[in-house]
Specification:
The chain is 57% helix and 7% strand. By secondary structure, it is mainly α. The strands form two sheets. The protein has a three-stranded parallel sheet. Strands 4-5 form a two-stranded parallel sheet. It binds adenosine-5'-triphosphate and magnesium ion (MG).
């Protein structure tokens, strides 16, 4: 049987997932999950780069559970995919350190995404760890030796860096890593309900995949539209208008959308009608996800099992990659002997404790 190519992507466990996550990355995961050997990462170490407080760390377990429930609700198949907790795979830290030697500080400083993250986290100065965010991400991607990385637009430049690191490693030490391809979603960046360029939890402009019907309706009814259109009989602008962007993405009734746009341009439809129809479309889109979520929620302990099982499977894969990487680098000598001795000692301890 031909071996499948591998896919890796992930999300920070900062809370439940929203429509932006769906169109930016989840949709492609669903499309590819039968063609690729998939790895989905709960990026708790990445969360630490901007939120290292104890309270945030304490929230990881519950956030991770909710996030994995969102995965399952969308249709990610846990039997087929490896869903794992980043901080519990210690090879991540090791590979991260090796990669840190292969990238320069100015190269990282040139990435606009890091400055955006620093600003939206209200940090006065750039933490060392945040500067290394895309290096850690490269370790995540290359640990399962992934060939493809489905992410939103804001992560595209990070995958480009991963490609550089993979090439540099291979040139210096020998072919260990594939040079992964980035796959940006059909909607590279989904606007927020407030008209901000990116739907993001920290900006409080989201519609969550797990929001109930009433909440969705409320969010949609208060959405930002054409600010110049103070009355329904004034011709409005459709292009770049968040309400119509969402209609294009989530309303499968193309004819209805075309007709609404035409009337909007002519000043022949009120915002309320346009938004009512959008709320109905978004709710219809979310309905099956809500149903599936409820089914998984009812299975006590299931999500924890998925994370434990995935993390164990990931550990095996990570161990293999690290061994290859160390071998290629020529860092195996003492390390191998120590590992063997430690293994023998562990088995002896086990034996004597059984007796
Ligand atoms: P939030 O700010 O809401 O926590 P985030 O950017 O921190 O979102 P991450 O966990 O860093 O979310 O990213 C998870 C994935 O979702 C990434 O691939 C990211 O590019 C994608 N993504 C997040 N928000 C959007 C959006 N508004 N549009 C498209 N893709 C998005
Ligand atoms: Mg997030």
């Amino acid at each position: 049987m031909q071996q499948l190519q591998r896919l890796l992507t992930g999300d920070r466990p900062t809370g439940r997932l929203h429509l932006g996550h769906y169109v930016g990355s989840i949709a492609n995961r669903l499309k590819l999950q039968s063609e690729y050997d998939c790895h989905f990462l709960i990026a708790d170490l990445h969360m630490l780069t901007t939120r290292p407080d104890k309270a945030d760390i304490e929230a990881i377990s519950e956030n991770a559970r909710q996030m994995v429930l969102d995965y399952l609700a969308c249709g990610i198949d846990p039997a087929r995919s490896v869903i794992f907790l980043q901080s519990a795979v210690h090879e991540t830290y090791e590979l991260n350190l090796f990669f840190e030697m292969l990238v320069t500080v100015p190269r990282l400083q040139r990435l606009p995404s890091l400055k955006d993250m620093k600003d939206s986290a209200n940090l006065a100065e750039m933490p060392f760890g945040l500067l290394g965010y895309p290096v850690l991400q490269s370790a995540d991607i290359l640990l399962p030796r992934a060939h493809i990385v489905p992410v939103g637009k804001d992560n595209e430049a990070h995958v480009e860096l991963t490609r550089e690191i993979a090439r540099r490693f291979n040139n210096l030490y020998g072919e260990v890593f594939p040079v992964p391809e980035v796959l940006v979603g059909d909607v590279p960046t989904l606007v927020g309900t407030d008209g901000n360029a990116k739907m993001s939890k920290s900006l409080n402009n989201t519609i969550l995949l797990s929001d109930d019907e009433t909440t969705v309706r409320k969010q949609v009814m208060s959405m930002y539209t054409d600010p110049n259109r103070v009355r329904a009989d004034i011709p409005g602008t459709v292009e770049g208008n968040p309400v119509f962007i969402y209609h294009d993405v989530f309303n499968p009734d193309r004819q209805q959308v075309a007709e609404l746009k035409q009337r909007y341009r002519q000043g022949a439809v009120g915002d309320v009608e346009v938004k009512e129809k959008l709320a109905a479309a978004v709710n219809a889109f979310l309905d099956p996800i809500r149903e599936q979520r409820a089914r998984y929620e009812a299975r006590r302990g299931f999500v924890d099992e998925v994370i434990y099982d995935g993390t164990l499977r990931m550990r095996e894969r990570a161990r293999e990659t690290l061994l290859e990487a160390r071998k290629a680098m020529g860092l195996t000598g003492v390390w191998n002997r120590i590992s063997r001795k430690a293994e023998v000692a562990r088995k002896q301890r086990e034996k004597s404790s059984v007796r």
